[in-house]
Amino acid sequence: MIDRPFLGGGQVNLLSLASFLDRGTFEVSVCSRGEGPLVDALGEEGIPHFPIAFSKRVQKGIVKDIVSLLNTHHFDILHTHGGVAGLFGRWSARRCDRPPRVVHTLHGIHYLHYRNFLFKYLYVYLERFFSRFSDAVIFVSDADRERGRRFNLVPEDKIVLIKNGIDFEAFESGTSFEEGKNELGFDSSGPVVGTVARLHRQKGLPYLYQAVKKIQESIPEAAVWIVGGGYLLPKLQRLGKKLDLKETVHLLGERKDVAKLLSRFDVFVLPSLWEGLPYSLLEAAALAKPVVATDVDGVREIIKHGETGLLVPAKDPERLAQAVVRLLQEREYAATLGRNLKDATQREFSLFRMLQKTQDLYRKLTVD
User: Fold this and answer.
1) Whole-angstrom distance, CA of residue 277 vs CA of residue 140
2) Which one, of 171, 198, 169, 339, lies nearest residue 263 by Cα?
3) For the chain, which terminus, N or C, has the lower number of CB atoms within 10 Å?
């Protein structure tokens, strides 16, 4: 269960589990809002989907609908992903005739970064409360697990660490990009600096825009591609106009051909202010892309500075630009970083490892 059906990190995690769990053991269905890329992908995989009109506002009607769904289908396990689904799903599970075992995954503890102190600690209190009624709470990175302990979010005996994973070979296959103007409607023959990210404050994209002006001073022909959608789109469009970057920064929106677009990147950049454990970095790793990322949270669990990529301070456009320019100019060094990143991540962040750990948890809960 997840609230919004776009394809962010939590949704990719959920889709991976739903698609590849052992069908000889598990019968899988997914619940989210009604329409979006996630729902389309589930349909392509033949995975049953149940629409619920999730909202961030507390509404008893949502709980009633979820309780009805759970009572009708008698699920053994309810696995919620993210804050909204975690709130409504765990609340509803307690009200069922035959409550399922409940697993919750925190895909980055975003509310700890809220600027509103009252909202931040409201969500801390809610997680402490609902974790008491969860059978297990999954953290996707060491950093988030330690942060969860520091804020006493989850009882120690319910904490589980399962890091995100992808199918490296599957992501790498079929990533051929045709250069020229026909592919995207603009010239794509120059150096490309790219990112795959939700257009959200977390991702630090305004700092990337500021860095672009500095990148252009050294490499005028460089272009920036941003793949993803989100509420910051109008703000970023205004910022691009203000900085005169209309012909340089291309906002490509949500795409199904992420692997193909990423294959065209000369440098992958992630200017995040915080992260859980970003799937986009694993996707860049699968294609052996040289990476510049901010030195935050789960990012440093993937990128080792100077070995598998370059790390720069968050909110520092100058250092971000310098690192990108270096990798665009020192192509052999950049290629070495990309190869090292792929070699270092394939075992620890494999889809197989993530699936095995999750299936083991499910089996343990249903046996106990």
Assistant:
1) 6
2) 171
3) C
CA atoms within 13 Å, Cβ hemisphere of 71: 11
Per-residue pLDDT of the chain (368 residues; tens, 9 = 90+): 999 999 889 999 999 999 999 999 999 999 999 999 999 999 999 999 999 999 988 788 999 999 999 999 999 999 999 999 999 999 999 999 999 999 999 999 999 998 899 999 999 999 999 999 899 999 999 999 999 999 999 999 999 999 999 999 988 885 666 654 446 778 778 999 999 999 999 999 999 999 999 999 999 999 999 999 999 999 999 999 999 998 999 999 998 889 999 999 999 999 999 999 999 999 999 999 999 999 998 999 999 999 999 999 999 999 999 999 999 999 999 999 999 999 999 989 999 999 999 999 999 999 86
Decide: 274 and 113 in contact? Cβ < 8 Å: yes
The C-alpha atoms of residue 15 and residue 140 are separated, in whole angstroms, by 15
- Does the pTM surpass 0.90? The reply is yes
Amino acid at residue number 229: G
Domains and CATH numbers, the chain: 9-165+350-367 (3.40.50.2000), 169-345 (3.40.50.2000)
Token pair belonging to 82:
């993210």
Tell me the CA distances in angstroms from 148 to 15, 265, 303, 346, one per residue in order.
Answer: 25, 35, 22, 27
DSSP one-letter code for 219? -
Cα distance between residue 5 and residue 22, in whole Å: 23
> What's phi and psi for 293, nearest 5 deg?
-140, 160
Q: Both tokens of residue 130?
A: 């609902």
Q: What are phi and psi of 278, to 5 degrees?
A: -70, 125
Q: What whole-number distance in Å separates Cα of residue 310 and Cα of residue 277?
A: 17
Tokens of 74: 């008698």
Kindly state the DSSP code that residue 53 receives in the 8-state scheme.
-
